[in-house]
Each structure stands twice: as structure tokens, then as C-alpha cells.
Design brief:
With 278 residues, the chain is an alpha/beta fold. The chain folds into two domains: 153 residues, Fructose-1,6-Bisphosphatase, subunit A, domain 1 (Fructose-1,6-Bisphosphatase, Chain A, domain 1, 2-Layer Sandwich), CATH 3.30.540; 114 residues, D-Maltodextrin-Binding Protein, domain 2 (3-Layer(aba) Sandwich), CATH 3.40.190.80. It has seven helices and 15 strands. Helix 5 runs parallel beside helix 6. The protein is globular.
Length: 278
């Protein structure tokens, strides 16, 4: 097995392991905190799931470097895992790293909504070589290696719709309460150009749904984080879709904003982003 395939398989196993930890506490009682705002949640479950992902990876790569959404702390309780990652502050340009979002869609998780995911991306020289997005409460595991993407083991491809008036498109990102005008303009730009609009509440789930053909596109105007995007971007591309920045250039982990699509009418999605920014 090649190194890339090995890392892709491990990303899948780690995402599943972390997702099981989160699933076991879903709709249960757990501590909830806020970070940058009243609706920016983090829970003890996020931290426990993240610890499990890290521990799973380090079984095979003891010196692995990690870029994680949450500050890693040791899991509490009788099944505590003593592990501290080697952290990095951004996606390294050289070498390997693992990018982890233990619960992407924590606000959904806290509210008891099923759309949340545990996401792991394996990085080599700043490029994603394998990724997994596990949605335990839905029973779906999305996984991608160097060349393919699957859901529960079955190959995926993006939607074959070509008419924008039949597209379902998702605005992604969030703004402070006193700065919602841009979000409103984005919603307007989407509904004026496309057939329908969705808001999922999980960036990785949104990208997975583009990869499997459930959605045709997504537009994010705000800066993105690697743990919210890298796994899903890899899946969309391997499923035949397209991901760019707001100018229509190939998206990179340090791009500002993101436009993802099935590859059809991508320029219309870029135009929606442009209209929202004016």
C-alpha cells in the first residue's frame, strides 16, 4: 500500500473512532461553553472526540503533527486517553500533518440536530492526500483517497445538473449580529440566480453533499479554517467538482472565501459572491 493510501485509510479509521465518541454523547447531558460569541459553541464532547482522533492516528504515527480546531486536553473519565499532539499553527508547506475537526457543526450537535460530522484530513506537503467525514447520527461515512471518493464504500460523483435554475446552493459562513448585511446580500444573490437555497450548519457536511450530488454549490465569503474545509474540498474535487476562491482561481488552504460546485455554472456562483461583496 502506498503512503498516501495508508494515510487515507487511517484518516477514515480516525474519523470513525472520534465520531463514535461524539455519537455516544449525542442528545445526552454534557458541558457547553462559548468561544468568540453567544452561538460559537465548544463542548467537552468536542475535546473528547478530538483526543480519540489524535490517539488513533498516533498509534501508527507517534510523531505526527496536528492542526486541530480545539485545544487538545486529555479525555476525562474512566476511558481517559493520555496523549498530547505535536501542534502546528497552520497547514505546513512541507512534511505531513493531520487536520482535525472533532465536531463540525457543534451548534447543530448542541441543539440535537443530526447534521454534524467528525472530519480528518491527511496532509503531505500542503496537499490533502486522504480525508474522511463521518456523520455518525446519519450513519454515513465519506472517505477520499488520492483518486476517488466514496460514501459508505460506494463511489460518488457530483450532480450532473447544468441549469442554474435547478441548483440547490448553500451560503456558508457567519457574521456578527451587527454585521449581517453581507450575509443578507449573499442570500439574495443566491436566490436570484439559483433554484433553491439550503443552510446546513456544517461546512464539511455541505461539501460532502456537493461531492455526493445532493447539492450543486456553496459560497463562503469569509475566511475559512483548514479543519472546516480541507477534507471536503478534497472530496468535491475527487468527485468531479470544482473549488475556487472568490475570483474563480483554484482554491488553496490560505484563500479568502470559497466557491464549490459540481463544475457546471461555476461562474454563476462566483458572480453571486461578487454581487454580495459589492
Amino acid at each position: 500500500m502506498s503512503d498516501s493510501l495508508h494515510r487515507a485509510a487511517l484518516a477514515e479509521r480516525a474519523a470513525r473512532a472520534g465520531g463514535v465518541v461524539a455519537r455516544n454523547q449525542f442528545r445526552d447531558t454534557f458541558a457547553v461553553e462559548t468561544k468568540t460569541g453567544k452561538n460559537d459553541f465548544v463542548t467537552e464532547v468536542d475535546r473528547n472526540a478530538q483526543s480519540q482522533v489524535v490517539a488513533t492516528v498516533r498509534e501508527e504515527f507517534p510523531e505526527a503533527r496536528f492542526l486541530c480546531e480545539e485545544e487538545l486536553v486529555t479525555r476525562s473519565g474512566p476511558e481517559a486517553i493520555e496523549t498530547e499532539p505535536t501542534p502546528v499553527e497552520s497547514v505546513p508547506e512541507t512534511g505531513s500533518a493531520w487536520v482535525v475537526d472533532p465536531i463540525d457543526g457543534t451548534a447543530n450537535f448542541v441543539r440535537g440536530l443530526r447534521t454534524w460530522a467528525t472530519s480528518v484530513a491527511a496532509i503531505a506537503n500542503s496537499e490533502t492526500v486522504g480525508a474522511a467525514t463521518y456523520m455518525p447520527s446519519m450513519g454515513d461515512l465519506y472517505a477520499s483517497g488520492p483518486e476517488n471518493v466514496t460514501r459508505d464504500g460506494k463511489p460518488l460523483s457530483v450532480s450532473d445538473r447544468t441549469d442554474p435554475e435547478t441548483f440547490a446552493v448553500t451560503p456558508v459562513g457567519w457574521w456578527a449580529l451587527d454585521d449581517r448585511a453581507e450575509f443578507g446580500r449573499l442570500c439574495t444573490a443566491v436566490v436570484e440566480r439559483f433554484g433553491d437555497m439550503r443552510r446546513i450548519g456544517s461546512f464539511q457536511a455541505t461539501l460532502a453533499f456537493i461531492a455526493d450530488g445532493s447539492l450543486e454549490g456553496a459560497v463562503c465569503l469569509t475566511p475559512t479554517y483548514p479543519w472546516d474545509t480541507l477534507a471536503g474540498v478534497h472530496m468535491v474535487r475527487r468527485a468531479g467538482g470544482r473549488v475556487t476562491d472568490l475570483d474563480g482561481e483554484r482554491w488553496h488552504h490560505d484563500s479568502v472565501g470559497l466557491v464549490a460546485s459540481n463544475g457546471e455554472a461555476h461562474d454563476e456562483l462566483v458572480a453571486a459572491a461578487t454581487a454580495a461583496l459589492e
